[in-house]
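Contributing new records

If you add data, match the layout below exactly. Sequence lines come first and carry their own label; structure lines follow with theirs. Keep one chain per record. Anything else will be rejected by the validation script.
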Amino acid sequence: MNKMFEDLKLDDVQSIINPNVNLNLPYGCEYLDILGGRNFERAKSLIEKWPNYTKSPLLELSKLAQQINVAEVYYKDESERFGLSSFKALGGAYAVSRLLIKEINKQYPNETVTTEDLVSRKYSDITQHITVTCATDGNHGRSVAWGAQSFGCQCIIYIHSTVSQGRADAIVSYGAQVIRTLGNYDDAVRQVDEDAKKHDRFIVSDTSYEGYLDVPKDVMQGYAVMADEILSQLPSNQKLTHVFLQGGVGGLAAAVTAHLWEKLEQDKPLFIVVEPEEAACLYESAKAGEPVAVLGNLNTVMAGLACGEVSVLAWTILKDAVSYFMTINDQSALEMMKILAKDAAAHPVVAGESAVAGLVGCVAATLDPVMRKRFQLNEASCILIIGSEGATDPDLYQSIIGASATQIKGGEQDCEKN
């Protein structure tokens, strides 16, 4: 193994082929009912009108690409999105805005309610009495809280026992009430559902389950804006061949997969989903051929991916379109964060723990001769990675890297090697 990757722990990386994948399927009505089409265009139109909207950067990890002998690795850097340091700013906040508009239209059915109306508090007589709520590992809850603060409603966010205090404090900073629950993320989801029914709150979740489908569709439509940006940012002569996506409940992976599938059709790239070995619900679902739950504490440093139950909407997309599923260990994620902070690109990249899962999977697959051949990776491959978050917990980031995110961005790269 070359020097850049000598500290990565890749020996126990697992990969399986998805037995259900069908690369010849068109992006038909079953999928459009979930993601894309006119609903996506509406999301794109609204989000592009938000204050301070700008496309996040698409970076070239050319030094890393050279080390793994591929043509290029593109990294969609979400570390500064709306100041929330995560792609989830696109999803939760958009779903909050859609929910509020629907509630306003119940009382004013003939009015066209805009984002500007929400921001200006034109309908505050309605919105101030609405409370949105969700469970979170950190980033989605921050997005929902930010959306509630931006658009004028109340917000209560549930976090489970292992969510860091830094992430809890970040949610509180957007005016939300935070409730810490026992158990894991999926336990918090169930508590949110129970309390919302009891107190007439509106759930804005990024995971879907039976009887709860409409809001998660809005969340994923927001995520798809990121994929649309990528298509506009790629060089015109560049064709993506592979996309390595982190798992979680599957919302991010499904949104990116669906949008590229819809827009690129038969020219779509090969999709690979990567998860922590301690929270691999998509991997296990692929093995079983149907959604299955992973039990236990789901204890992984990749906090945003610590999910044990699959989003049923996301699974509808992923089961047909993803070619391979992978699992990685926590140590490899921590080391990849350090690599990005030092020497993977022309400039240092600040990446949080959950941002690097796809990149670890990519490096593991390209360096292993069997996986490299199986995944059809070669020197002409053009690979996309979603850098889904930055230093969402600044203290934790500094403890891992040995320098703050500000120092890394400023070029101070004397990172400790743990």
